[in-house]
Amino acid sequence: MTNHSQPPMYLGIDGGGTKCRVRLENAQGTLLAEAVSGAANIATSIEVAQQSIIDATTHALQQAGLGLSTLRAIYAYAGLAGAGIAGANKKMAQWQHPFAQFNFSTDLHIACQGAHGDNSGAIIILGTGFCAGAIKNGNVIELGGHGLLLSDGASGGWIGLTLFRYALEVLDGLSPSSPLINTLLAQLSCDTSNQLTELALNAKPAFFAGFAPLVFAMQDDPWAIIILEQAARYITRYIDHLVSHGYHNITLMGGTAEKITPWLSTKAQGYLCDAHYLPEQGAIQLAKRLA
């Protein structure tokens, strides 16, 4: 229910597999506050995602010097990881939220809106997970993003998981070690494949994504080179696919995007462009349309 005693405000929410980022603006588009909280992948946990949205919003209100009663004046739009999964989407749509209005779609949708606005363009998101897509005439197409078990090559989660797989080969004596593998095992205090398996067997994608920075930090290592070349080939397949469908402006986004770009071919890099706005700003654009 809208609180008519307060002017409307707009909240853009970018909910990923590791972090939930929010941006609060007034009706004139002035930034009031930004905040970050935990994971917001609704395919993993509806409850955790909802709590992350509330936590990040609460932090933003505190930064802006606003009370919780302001929630009733906020028009929110969220781009959420996992929103493409029908079951998760249906459950999320039943949320008894505290906002004046709350709408949501995928994190790819808001990222594409932010990157290209109302113009045609494509994006590839390289965060904890992976997805790609494009927007044309207001219509969004989505590719990939099926989770670490089924897809998500080149994502932070995939890079970390692949590092673990090679580390297991080393521990089992199938492959030679390297400084990268030795550093990983030292950090985890693992000396055997059984120890490493026990540590990682039930780990979430965000756990593995936490080791992607180590691969980039030691990117001259033989195993790092193999991993990053594989990642680059995976991304290039999607770039080629998008280009073949007429999208020549492609934005790489997410935590590993900038670091993986030099590993792409000169031809592939030639199709890349910067985003016009952040995903959270894209979400605010959509919130204003529906207000």
TrEMBL record:
InterPro entries: ATPase_BadF, ATPase_NBD, Euk-type_GlcNAc_Kinase
Domain annotation ATPase BadF/BadG/BcrA/BcrD type: ranges: 11-286
Superkingdom of origin organism: Bacteria
Pfam families: BcrAD_BadFG (PF01869)
Protein name, entry field: BadF/BadG/BcrA/BcrD ATPase family protein
Organism: Pseudoalteromonas rhizosphaerae
